[in-house]
Structure formats: structure tokens, C-alpha cells
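Milestone M4 deliverable, item 7.
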Amino acid sequence: MDILLLATLFAMLLVFLFRRYHIPIKHRWRRRQARAMCEQLRGPDRDQPAGLHYARLRAMDPLAFEELLLEAFEQRGHRVIRNRRYTGDGGVDGEVVIDGERWLIQAKRYRDAIRPEHVRDFAMLCATRKRRGMFIHTGRTGGISRTVVLSADGIEIVSGQRLLALLTGAPFHPGGFPPLASVGSGRSGLRDRAPL
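Output delivered:
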């Protein structure tokens, strides 16, 4: 009887570990693509023109772009929390822990201007979860989207030179916000045009 109980517990443990640590093939492929792109952007390709970098980013698989951003944070020594699946993620493409604080990440691989409703939805999600967030994208940030960020608390847009800084290993500093307890008091974190 004890052997049967031990065998059952062992089988349950194996199932738990398999489900917890099994990475689907598509996820592994996207992570490999992201790692390769990250190495290229931090290596000899780092000094290529910004337009070429953006063209390569916009040509990536959108889900591999999400993985690229998470890989870039890992390369900086931050702990990354990945979703178990890409679809049905509730609007959060991953999380990163920076200086002990969890940030929500929303990744958009746009060719044109970002949609203000996407920024608004992400700002509401961050407020609901009481977390700060980074809306990271390859497109243009229009005036309405900037207004949404200015009226929201605890989110910032990362694009342009800041996006390239994140990906190439150049200085990148998110935040500059008040303590989380004061998120909601009207201060914004818009930093879209910081120098590289």
C-alpha cells in the first residue's frame, strides 16, 4: 500500500514538473530568434543606422518581438516573469523586476502610430493591478497617446531612441516615479525622447 502511495505521489510530481517547466516548441523557436536578434543588436550590428534597426524589428514575428524585449531585460540582469502562453495574456506580455519592483510589459510591433485605446487599456490594467508599466513599441507616439500617458500614472512609453538603448545595451533607466503608494496622484512617466 505504501509503495502504491509513493508511486502515485511520484507520478503527480512528474506531471506537475512537466507542466511547469515544459516550454512548447513554438515558444522555444521564438526565444531562440529573440536571443539571436539580441546578440546581433548588442554586437557588431549595434552601430548600424537606427532606421535599419527599426526595419528589422518591424519584420520580426510579433511574439518573438515580445521575447526580444524580455531577453533584453534579462541581459541587463533583471528577473523576468514570462507568461505561459502568448494568447489570452490579459494585456500583459510579461513582467520584469527592476530594483525589487514588478513592472508590467506591453509590447507592440507597429509600423505606424500606436493606437491611443491600446495605451488607455494598458494604463487601466496597470492601475487595476497597482503596478507600473512600460508600453514598448516600434511605431510613432501620436499626440492623443501622449495625452493618455500624461493623464495616467505609473506608465511610460518606451520607443525611439529609448527602445534602441534597451536593446543595444546602452544606458536605459525606467522609472523616476514617486513611490508606488503615491501612484494615482497625477505624476506621469513619459520619457519617449531620451538620448541614446
